[in-house]
Amino acid sequence: xxxxxxxxxxxxxxxxxxIFNEKGQILVNKGIPLTKRMIERLEELGITYVxxxxxxxxxxxxxxxxxxxxxxxxxxxxxHTFRELNQKxxxxxxxxxxxxxxxxxxxxxxxxxxxKDNKDLLSLLTxxxxxxxxxxxxxxxxxxxxxxxxxxxxLPEKQLEVIGLGAILHDVGKMMVSxxxxxxPERLTADEFNEVKKxxxxxxDLLRKLSTIPLMAxxxxxxxxxxxxxxGYPRGIKxxxxxxxxxxxxxADVFDAVTSNRVYRKAMxxxxxxxxxxxxxxxxxxxxIIEAFRNSVAIYPIxxxxxxxxxxxxVVVKQNSGYCDRPFIRILENDGVELQEPYEVNLxxxxxxxxxxxxxxxxxxNSA
Length: 368
Known about the structure:
- By secondary structure, this protein is an alpha+beta fold.
- The protein has 2 domains: 2-62 and 302-367, Molybdopterin biosynthesis moea protein, domain 2; 68-296, Hypothetical protein af1432, CATH 1.10.3210.10.
- The protein has helices at 36-44, 68-84, 90-117, 134-152, 157-168, 179-182, 190-197, 199-207, 215-223, 244-258, 270-279, 287-296, 363-367, and strands spanning 2-5, 19-21, 26-28, 49-52, 129-130, 305-308, 312-320, 323-334, 337-346, 355-359.
- Strand 2 (19-21) and strand 3 (26-28) form a beta hairpin.
- Helix 4 (134-152) packs across helix 12.
- The longest helix has 28 residues, at 90-117.
- It is globular, with a radius of gyration of 21 Å.
- The two termini are 20 Å apart.
- This is HD-GYP domain-containing protein.
- GO terms for molecular function: hydrolase activity.
- It comes from Bacillus salitolerans.
- Keywords: Hydrolase.
């Protein structure tokens, strides 16, 4: 199997991995030849990348970072809670969040257990799921990334639980912002952007008064858009004024935002998202947190086709824990010529080789 961009798929291509909706129902099953209309529909649904069948790599194992059951429960709980919130009734909102907090705590503990048990680098591209609302999946993704960072930094269990709860609720204040503004495909006006920025304060005000939500979890909602140099919002605080949880969630939030399909732009690949973080290291984001993130997340996901600096190209088939940019590659071509006998190279042991390009086109469409 290979990971390719949906826009490059040809009719007749078969999916290696099924596509689900948020309720766990199959939208497109694996092994079914895709029609032109099916491919167009996938693009309309915001599916940027899919796994397709490829006989040379169909033996490669894809493993989700958390179980389907935990993922489904988490997203459905986020969606149910967020949709219950009322823009004008703070008393009702407090009751909704009080009732949901125990459920969220249980979900966070299950996620921590599964992430600790999974020794592979975290890759969310293994889960191709269609959702109605970006905020619900974003909240879960940021939770997974934040907990992966926290585990890599060896934070105590209780701190992991608090940062997990803070991450899953970090955007709860967006439910107080008009959906017309949140989902606007065009550039926001200055007034609209100022309204969106208020979600940090809205979230903090919602969470800080609840006895079932730790105050530091409320500060995650308050601080995740603050930056080390003071250029963030809502308060423009700097450096050590920002809690470590806020710094961690800031990294997770930006990475998921740029690597997710949005109404106003296409998703970046994970390696491109990491470059965004590196560009902000030291003045926007904590460098130590970026390194912890780098050590725990798959920057070149399994199934992606890459070219090496010596002209060889192939598919990522396995990760090296702690070495996100040094995976195992199954070499399939040499300077564009297909090899009769593919072989694997472990980039961890071959420091002379580096990945110079990611290829997202289906080879069949390239040759057409």
